[in-house]
Amino acid sequence: MARYTGPKAKIARKFGEPIEGHSKALQKKNYPPGQHGRGRRKKQSEYAIQLAEKQKAKYIYGVLERQFAKMFDIASRKQGITGENLLQLLEARLDNTVYRMGISPTRRGARQLVSHKHILVNGEVVNIPSYSLKPGDVVSVRERSKSLEAITNSLAGRGANKYSWLEWDSASLSGKFVSVPSRDDIPENIKEQLIVELYSK
């Protein structure tokens, strides 16, 4: 399956929540998209619920099926709770961290900034959105990219540092991935245990 690039509103309505940021479509049409969206919903099977949760996590973080399965495999072999390990791996992705730091208002935009070589990790250009950060890594905007309108506009709307595992220096346009976030710190509405149960079948 190729990465989804279609309407965000359609995905938001499918899951009944703003998957890729605020969506006005949910306020106007709080039912699933499609011909039978307004109809009475069938009772979902256990498998369907688990699958939907996995799909939701993939859409939120912009990860493809093969990448997601590989990350789950890594998470399952690490010490600790598999579901929490999985979310921590997703949060440690470079594109997600660029988004969390406010360099881009969306994960899609963050992925594009990384791919187009606007982002440095520890002073070196890294153009792999899935690059996994380690505690202590410094993420910064490349010098020649600091005046990019997309970046300046996003940072202008940036509030105070919202995430305890990240530090941000607005003067140098750089931030640090201080530590791996705990599950309580990760704000995404994902029931990771359902994903673990799905892969355990």
From TrEMBL:
GO biological process, one term: ribosomal small subunit biogenesis
Chain spans, region Disordered: 1-45
Description of how the protein assembles with itself and partners: Part of the 30S ribosomal subunit. Contacts protein S5. The interaction surface between S4 and S5 is involved in control of translational fidelity.
SUPFAM superfamilies linked: Alpha-L RNA-binding motif
Annotated CDD domains: S4
Name of the protein in its database record: Small ribosomal subunit protein uS4
InterPro entries in the cross-refs: Ribosomal_uS4, Ribosomal_uS4_bac-type, Ribosomal_uS4_CS, Ribosomal_uS4_N, S4_RNA-bd, S4_RNA-bd_sf
Source species taxonomy: Bacteria, Pseudomonadati, Bacteroidota, Cytophagia, Cytophagales
Family: Belongs to the universal ribosomal protein uS4 family.
